[in-house]
Write a structure and sequence with these properties.
203 residues, rod-shaped, four-stranded antiparallel sheet, four-stranded mixed sheet, single chain, mainly beta, 59% strand
Amino acid sequence: QQGDDWDSNAFRLSASGAVASIRGVTGFTTPISDGFGLVNSSNVKDLTIMVNGNNAGKTDDKGLLFLPNLTSYYDNLISAVTTDVSMEYALPESDKFASPLFRGGSYINFDVNRYSAISGKINIKKDNKSVPLEFYELTLTYEGNKIVSPTGKDGEFYFENITPGSYDVEFDYFGKSHTMNLNIPEFEGTFFDMGTMTYEINK
């Protein structure tokens, strides 16, 4: 449940409009006579938002939408239309409740997560010979969590939902621990092929 946000203000601009501000975001809306809200859809634009079953509009290019007609001291049902979300995104929770104070604002956040996957192949080079790193376990540390991915035939590996950046990947090879760098670039779409990488083992 999304309660009242104390960092919120609404001002009458004219008989036909108002200025609303919440969490540093200011926008022009239709007149606000009761409560209001601000939807944040994690930068996903054109997401249709429903308020108590009625269409309230779509999020803008920044994933924001002001809701000027919320009922104060009441659980307003704020829903995101999941069919507007493309397959590369996941919307874990599509319904929220907002209960603003009178002339107060509620901040409604929909965590829309982008689905992505990377794959590639790893070769081990030793004594001027290169062989695939087949059937080993790779361990990548991401946001404090250990993510394990087994390699397959030809040294193929696969990770899901890792944001672009530089990461250390650990693996054991013939009883010794090794660490190699995995540099994931920015990419469009849901899938990126890292190609074939070579890790050289020194004597």
